[in-house]
Each structure stands twice: as C-alpha cells, then as structure tokens.
Design brief:
single chain, 382 residues, Aspartate Aminotransferase, domain 1, Aspartate Aminotransferase, domain 2, 2 domains, seven-stranded mixed sheet, four-stranded antiparallel sheet, 13 helices, binds pyridoxal-5'-phosphate
Length: 382
Amino acid sequence: MPPLGAAARDLFLLQPGAAFLNHGSFGATPAPVRAAQQAWRDTVETQPDVFFRETIWTATRASAARLGRLMGAPGESLVFLPNLTEAVAVVLDAMRFAPGDEIVLLDVAYAAVRKAAELTAARTGAGLRTIPTALQMTDAAYAEGLRAALSPRTRLVILDHIVSPTAQLIPVETLVPIARAAGAKVFVDGAHALGQLPLGVAALGADWYASNAHKWLFAPRGCCLLYSAPEVEDATRPVIVSHYNADPYPRRFDYVGTRDVTAYLAAADAADFVERYGLAALTAHRAALIALADAALRDRGAGLVTPHAPALAAWTLPQSRPARPDDGPALMRALWYEAGVQVAASSAGGRLLLRLSFQLYNDEADIARLVAALDRLSWPGR
Ligand SMILES: Cc1ncc(COP(=O)(O)O)c(C=O)c1O
C-alpha cells in the first residue's frame, strides 16, 4: 500500500507546515502525475507538428478509454473539457431552449452553474424552477421536491451529485429515472465524484454526466470528463467552433484549436495513481478522519450535514446571531493566515458552514490543528 497521511505529503508540493483540508476546491497533484504531465509537455515541445497533427488524436482517445474504466462508461462516450463550468456551457448549448421551456435545478446547485442556467434562460425565454433542499434530507424528500418542480414544460433537470458548499450526497440513482420518466433530459454535475465515488455513469441513465478529474482524481488542473448518452451525442458540440466541429462525437472535442491538452493525457496517470491505492482503501482512510472530525466538532456544538459524500463533509457551526455572507470567507482567512489551516466555509440561510475535505495526505494531526485553531480563534458570530 502506498503511503497515507503525513507520509504521503512528500508526494505533493503543498506548503509544508500547514494543514490542507480543502482538497475539494482545487485539488492537488502528486509527483507521478506532475512528472507524467511534464513528459507530455516535453513530447509536444520536441515535435509540435507531429503532436498536433497525429499524436493528439490517439493519445486523447487512449486516455479517455483509461478513464472510462473509472467513470463506468465507454471511452468513446467521453470527451475532455478544461472544467465543469465549460461542460455546463456545452450541455446548455446542446439543449436549444425555446420560450416557455423550463430548466429545473437544486437550490444548492453550484453558483456558477446556476448563473449559466439563468443567462441561458434569459437569452432563450426559458424559465427556471428550483428544488428546495434542507441540510438533513431523505431520498424520499429529494424525490418529492423533484416531482413538485417538474412540469410538462421541463426540458432539462440539472442535479449535483455532491453539493459543493454542503457536501451533501444527492441520490441521483433515485432522481434520474423520475426526471427521465417526465420526459426531461438530465445533466448530472458530478464535479466532486470521480476519485471519490465508485461510478457507473452509463448505467445511471442520465443524458449527460460530467466530473472534474482535477479534484479527487489528482489530475492536473484543467481536466474534466463529459459523458454523453448515445441519443444526445449528435447535439453535443464544443462551444468553441474549430476545424473539426462537423466531425462526429467524440472526435470534434479532441482538437479545439491549439491548446495545452497535457492535463487530459496525464489524467490517465492520475487514474493509475488512485488505483494503486484502491478506492476502498482511500474511502476507509477518509471515512475514519470524517468520524474523528465529527466527534471533535460535535463537542463544540457543530452539526453534521447528512447524507454526506465519502470524503467531503460539512458542519453547521453554532451561532449567537444569523451568519452573514462574509462570515465564511472571514473564517477561511482567519484559519489560514493565523493558524495555517485551509478549509472551505460559507453561509447559507443564516447558518455558518464549515466544509472539510479529507484526502489521502491528511491525518489526525490536521484535525487536531483545526480544532485547536477553532478553540483559539473561535468563528464569526459564535
Ligand atoms: C458542484 C460543482 N459544480 C461545478 C464546479 C465548477 O468546477 P470548475 O471550477 O472545475 O469549473 C464545482 C467546483 O467546485 C462544483 O463543486
């Protein structure tokens, strides 16, 4: 078994002497993956013509096939994009909305995704409906919320698989069939899923599923995979028009102007890195840390949001007043600049949310350091 906890920190360039409990936001790339990306960059530099005229096609498809094993989807159903934000743009563009159409999404949908949906709705005359959620939800409550938001005009349902600020795990296996049965197309935003959850994307039945590889899979930044079901492949096109836009899916995504695609290619090495540990071993390590953190935070009056993702969890912190929008950023800055602890924090509905990521390089010492810092610095509105 490769190293876990503090022994694994040397694989990363993360600033020494600090506790990093926010892998989920921007990821971190281990040495073997950084080396693989550099090797690809050197290959490009050695013979750019051969790379961009020949190698890019075969290497991109080989990497997609490798990642397909983790996504649970054939490589030919997967295309690379720089990030989830662009995947959303591709899906919204593929929908060709008309006035009166409706888009349904969760009230906790990722803010940038909501903005993209709002702009598309404003441009096309489509409407937006929201599924309300709470910090403790059952599968049945999610299903009821979705059913209430659906109408004969619903054309697209956007579901987060793991909610960003709250770390909630959404029961997409229950919700996708409900949306499909109502005649809507479904896009699952699995930004945090790949490398955290076992995935069977093709069997899930969604029209599109996207996951970043640069978060929990350890790929270099700028690497997202978009799955398209066979029925929507034809409509699914890059939002930037390039030479190959009229080529069939997935080929039209494999070359979209001259750009650095080395993150896409090194993502295959990231898959190897994760598989050397095995997802089960990673999950066990991370779950043990969530339990430790929960025990310590509960002692301080915090409440765990459930059901949560396997390696990402959020707690509401007790407040003497309703949390304000700037309380989350203030807590993050205090913990980093005064205690060397990186977390994610936000406020929602008057509650201050502390979100922690538990990665293979974390251990009990990181949690002890966080808890000591919270005791010393407290938090806004405590
Ligand atoms: C649920 C969700 N959707 C979308 C995104 C956007 O991802 P990216 O910044 O890679 O575009 C994130 C990023 O954290 C996310 O958590």
